[in-house]
Design brief:
Elements (H helix, E strand, L loop, with lengths): L1 H40 L7 H9 L2 E2 L6 E2 L1 H5 L7 E2 L6 E2 L14 H15 L6 H12 L2
Antiparallel strand pairs: 1-2, 3-4
């Protein structure tokens, strides 16, 4: 009886986990699509993940400290691994939605982190074109 129950429960659990992952991925796709539409309405686009990838590794020099910064400073070059905050050393969950299904699912968080991270890394807020290129790049990971 126990073996039969296991044979029935394990596939059901696997299916439930798969469905929850797919639901999170589709929720993220909707939020990203909404943002890309919003950015396009400002005249940005077409969006290019290759430009986003190039910007990811682009070095910027902080005007106050002279320190070199880039997105990969904290998030690493591989978006599917845990990063580390440059100042605090705090772990940063993977940015790639394939490694962290929670990524790109909440509009408020995306806006918040774009604002903070662009100001820290680039020294200004990112343009709608840059944000769209970044989202296109990140979403493909």
């Amino acid at each position: 009886m126990t073996r039969l129950r296991t044979l029935l429960i394990v596939p059901a659990l696997a299916a439930a986990l798969l469905m929850s992952g797919l639901a999170a991925a589709s929720a993220g796709a909707g939020v990203v699509d909404d943002l890309l539409t919003e950015f396009a309405a400002t005249g940005a686009g077409p969006f290019d993940g290759n430009r986003g990838k190039t910007m990811w590794s682009e070095i910027h020099v902080d005007a106050k400290t002279g320190q070199e910064r880039k997105c990969a400073t904290c998030h690493t070059a591989d978006l599917s691994v845990v990063g580390k905050h440059a100042k605090t050393g705090k772990a940063i969950k993977p940015l790639a939605p394939s490694a962290n299904p929670e990524r790109l699912t909440e509009l408020k968080k995306i806006r918040k982190w774009f604002k903070r991270n662009c100001k820290w890394t680039v020294g200004r807020e990112c343009t709608p074109q840059e944000k769209g290129d970044f989202l296109t790049f990140i979403q493909s990971r």
